[in-house]
Amino acid sequence: MDRQRQASLGLSALGLIIGLIAIFVFMSAFSLDAWCPEENQSEVIRDGEAVISCEGSGMWNGTIARLFLACCIFVPLSTLLTTVGVVLRKVKSENVDLEGQTSEGPSESAIVPILQSMAQWFGVGLTGIVMILAVGITAFVILGLYAVFSSGSLFG
Asked: Fewest CB atoms within 10 A around its CB: which of 66, 145, 146, 152?
């Protein structure tokens, strides 16, 4: 396998790994550690049982930061790397021998282009999910603001 094909496979694999990291970071944004950092946690006794309470400001900082990192940094980077990997593979690098004839490089397994294509569609799918979530959240916020302002008061 020549260097160009190795680089394209490496970029696709790196994009896939970053996409999986994006999923992990997104899911961890809803954990207790993101909602309430350990320094803000305290134990409170309620009804004879010890429960964890969260005190202090900045309760949303960890969640917002993780969501931004996953959706706005990792997902576009994953899509970019997987797409560049597939495009780099498709660029024809033909070798010309001494007689002016083009010669084909060594043949490769048919599974590699399929895996790269799957990695590319994984990145595109992640981008689509992020776009759907963004549209849904925007619509929810707009409807909420409309409901607040059309009722005439905040609590009426």
From this structure: 152
Nearest by Cα to 83 from 26, 143, 126, 132? 126
Mean pLDDT value across residues 133-138:
93
- Tell me if 35 sits within 8 A of 142, measured CB to CB: no
Burial of residue 37 (CB within 10 Å: 0-12, 13-18, 19+) is middle
Residue 26 to residue 32: CA distance in whole angstroms: 13
Q: How far apart are CA 76 and CA 82, in angstroms?
A: 10
Helix, strand or coil, per DSSP, at residue 86: helix
Q: Taking a C-beta distance cutoff of 8 angstroms, is the pair 37, 58 a contact? A: yes
How distant is the alpha carbon of residue 18 from its chain centre? 7
Return the higher-pLDDT residue of 83 and 95. 83
Closest by CA to 74, choosing from 6, 5, 122, is: 122
Choice between 24 and 92, residue whose per-residue pLDDT is larger: 24
